[in-house]
Design goal:
With 251 residues, the chain is α/β, with parallel strands linked by helices. Helices cover 44% and strands 15% of the residues. Bound molecules: 2-phosphoglycolic acid. Residues 9, 168, 173-174, 211-214, 232-236 line the site of 2-phosphoglycolic acid.
Length: 251
């Protein structure tokens, strides 16, 4: 069975002081018992603080981006080996904000997923359509394109073996407009079928997270859907109690 994963994407929020309280609260809540695997993805500069505070706990650590390069003259970039060095096991890649604001296209995202996996990280690959794409009935075409860039190469398919996919409709991110459980389930089922066409075993084991305005109040109904294996949580991951309510939602 697929163990549900709830991952918090802090984005560019917080300070070392707020991180301190948030991490302590999450650690305590997770130790009290949750069925899901829990991960937090703070900004790079707070990773070492988070790693120290999470030592010996079941809460996993992830980053929000990584370079496609191993090392060298890439000012401002962070490599996979650096993230591993800081105690990360996950890295979010291809988030719609990276695609929209930093020009990350499918080819670059695929390169990053392959590099991160090669180094030993578990990529959380984000896919999802904009409102315009949904309204013009292109949701499946867009998600297929974002997946195929990995599914269609041996290296990409190998990288997906240890990856998680997050379906995040762009129109639902940070807007309070959550996809209905059925809307999310339909795309999750499509993603799983698309993977199954290449690798049935992978399709059965890969975790597919939903992301986009998940809150304590709607998490359980989303996670109850057959192909939804947890969530990637933005805004609601910045408050320990709200995040913990979501972490407790999977059974
Ligand atoms: P949100 O963000 O939960 O604030 O909508 C989700 C995400 O962007 O990962």
């Amino acid at each position: 069975m697929r163990k549900p994963l709830v991952a918090g994407n802090w984005k560019m929020n917080g300070s070392s002081e707020t991180a301190q309280g948030l991490i302590a609260g999450i650690r305590e809540g997770v130790e009290a018992g949750v069925a899901a695997e829990v991960a937090i993805c703070p900004p790079f500069v707070y990773l070492s603080q988070a790693a120290a505070m999470l030592e010996g706990s079941a809460v996993a650590l992830g980053a929000q981006n990584v370079s496609q390069h191993d090392s060298g003259a890439y000012t401002g970039e962070i490599s996979s080996s650096m993230l591993l060095d800081m105690g990360c096991s996950y890295v979010i890649l291809g988030h719609s904000e990276r695609r929209a604001y930093y020009g990350e296209d499918d080819a670059l995202v695929a390169e990053k997923v392959i590099a991160a996996h090669g180094a030993g990280l578990k990529p959380i690959l984000c896919v999802g359509e904009t409102l315009d794409e949904r309204e013009s009935d292109r949701t499946e075409a867009v998600v297929a394109r974002q997946l195929d860039v990995l599914l269609d190469t041996a290296e990409g398919l190998a990288a997906l073996q240890d990856s998680v996919i997050a379906y995040e409709p762009v129109w639902a991110i940070g807007t309070g407009m959550t996809a209905t459980p059925q809307q999310a389930q339909d795309v999750h089922a499509f993603i799983r079928q698309r993977i199954a066409a290449k690798d049935a075993e992978l399709a059965g084991k890969i975790r597919l997270l939903y992301g986009g305005s998940v809150k304590g109040a709607n998490a359980a109904e989303l996670f109850a859907m057959a192909d939804i294996d947890g969530g990637l949580i933005g805004g609601a991951s910045l408050q320990a109690e709200e995040f913990l309510t979501i972490c407790r939602a999977p059974e």
